Amino acid sequence: MSTLVALDALLLTVLLMIGVPVPLCFAGAVLVLMTFGDYGAPAFLIGTGYAKVSSLVIVAIPLFILAGGLMSRGGIAQRLVAVADSLFGRTRLGLGGVVIVTTAIFGAISGMASSAVAAIGTIMVPRMVERGYDRAYASTLVAVSAVLALLIPPSASMILFGWVTGTSILACFLAPIVPALLLIALMAFWNIVLTRNMPIIRPEPAPLKQVAVEFFGRVRHATLALLMPVVILGCIYGGVTTPTEAAAVAVLYAIPIGLFVYKDLNWRELGNVIWRAGQITGVLLLMIFFASMLARIWTMENVPQQMLSVFLSVSENPIILLLMANVFLAIVGMFMDDASGILLASPLLMPLMLKVGVDPIQFAAIIAVNLGMGLITPPTAPILYFAALIGKAPVGYMMKPALVFVLGAYLPVVLLVTFIPELSLTLPRWVLGLN
Amino acid sequence: MSEQEETEQVNTPRWLGGPALSVWNATLQLQRILLVVCGVALTLLICLQVFTRYVMGISILGIEEIACFSAVWMYFIGSAHGAWERGHISASLVELFAPRGPVNRFMKVLASVLTVVIAGWMTVWAWDYFNFSLRRGSTSPDTGIVLAWVHVIMPITLALMTLYWTVEAFGTIRSLFSGEEDK
Q: How far is A13 from chain B (nearest CA, A)?
């Protein structure tokens, strides 16, 4: 690796650590290379960034964000909670189970962990506290469950990964589903363990008939909301539309439901949701704009291949290499959000993954679970901190349960996904007929 | 959002008032309106494509191109509005190791000044690219739209971002000397 590139990587790290906004960290690294390196006129780099963000594939991201925003403001969250509560509220899983299941379903609509925290956390944390759950625990559970939004399609992170690495987005959507189900099972287990000594008030057991009547009544009220993931995924995997088109259909589906059926949305609120979605997307896309400029120069400098050489100089054993790649991803995840992590780490690690025989689709699942874990792992745990804000919980008290979920649920799933390819490859092969 | 709220929570200069503040807020309102227009256009264009392609069996030339142009405008305007609202993501470790005090305030000044320098520099590059595009007079392949009119949003919004981050930088510098935490 040339000295200039090594210094550039160091500068990128320093800029990140002192708190320069992530897009400008990438831009700063580009600036230094263009100033001291010999890469020609800088205008061509702006053209590179523009070419990347003007892709039709990327248009799916703002549309899914908008659909998620519309559904969360349009009253879907309360209805999903009501359905899950009628199923799990009286069981040992309790309201913890309700949170896990609701965020998983919500993830199939919004694809953004922060939307899931805002929508579900606002409703569930006060309700859990009322029933005797510890506030810090309730907020932690919302955070760790919200990460499921990254793993359950349609996921903004998987669109980004597929687009950055040139992997099928449909396959990337499917790859993390089984790992997500494993996570749900492990989170449910730890939820029971961690709440066993809490003074939780459970509703009185009810006859099966009463439970069934209540469940189907609530499902009826939530039918249109529950149909949304079916419409999105049905359009995509039924071969009817592309992910971008399915996202637009989802937006068009969500607007009349919020406005005229659930009536939790009004015209003014609709305008606010649209510009907010534009802002969220803008923040994300500026990062892509500058990251693609940096990636272009790093590719010219052969940085991914040099990164591979660095890894191979330590060991040629595939198990060691995969463990090292996961440690690298975990470190990236501890300091960056999922989108920045994908933009930075996926092109750098792809040559290594191909070298050790990891399919890019499996890599999608590895990176999704690992960087998802990073969202709740300190020091930079944006989703954990956001949940603390929403749940009004002290972050210090959230660390212990968060650590239990990271070590007891996320880490085992990261390792399973890394060393058992079938966990991530079976579903794409089965649904898409890939070899 | 009221004018009072806008000056306290976001990157609006504290000293701004009267007509100048109204112009400042009108610029922000215009950004929100453009975001809504682009978002609606994007959705309708893609839905129109779905309808014509899958229901009528025809494909209208240029829909995807205009949708992508709307999207690019939306991204950059959203990014500028995000800079005003301090919505950009950062991965600062300073908050963890020095949550308050002079070290924290100094590092914030350093980060915010570097942010302004980099954003300003990128604005110049984007302006050069726009000029290059204007001189060449390139047009889009499907609709023949002059690409400079798409590219122009990049220097405009990067300049706005630089302005908003400059306001934030002044706030951090004031905090460094006054000892107050920046809002």
A: 10
Task: For an interface test with B, give the residue of A15, A20, A50, A231 to mutate (most B CBs within 10 A).
Answer: A20
Choose among A17, A271, A283: nearest Cβ to B88: A283
- pLDDT score of B181: 64
Element of type H or E holding A47? helix A43-53
Report the distance separating Cα B98 and Cα B105, nearest Å: 9
CA distance linking residue A48 with residue A58, whole number of Å:
15
B126 closest CB neighbour out of A18, A31, A46 = A46
Residue B2: pLDDT over 60: no
Give the tens place of pLDDT for each residue, A1-13: 578 888 888 898 8
Task: From chain A, pick out residues whose CB is under 8 angstroms from the CB of B158.
Answer: none
Structure tokens at A194: 């961690």
Task: Please give the Cα distance from A334 to A44 (Å, whole number).
Answer: 33
Q: Is the ipTM of this complex over 0.85?
A: yes
With 0-12 / 13-18 / 19 or more C-beta atoms within 10 angstroms meaning exposed / middle / buried, residue B16 is middle
A98-118 pLDDT, tens digit each: 889 888 887 777 777 877 887
Tell which of B79, B103, B124 to mutate to test the A interface (max A CBs under 10 Å): B79
pLDDT in tens, A222-240: 888 888 888 888 888 777 8
Position B182 scores a pLDDT of 57
Q: Do A285 and B79 touch (CB under 8 A)?
A: yes
Using one digit for the tens of pLDDT, what is the confidence trace for B113-130? 999 999 999 999 999 999
Q: How far is CA B120 from CA A50, A214, B101, B156, in A?
A: 18, 59, 29, 11
Q: To the nearest whole angstrom, how far is the Cα of B173 from the nearest Cα of chain A? A: 15
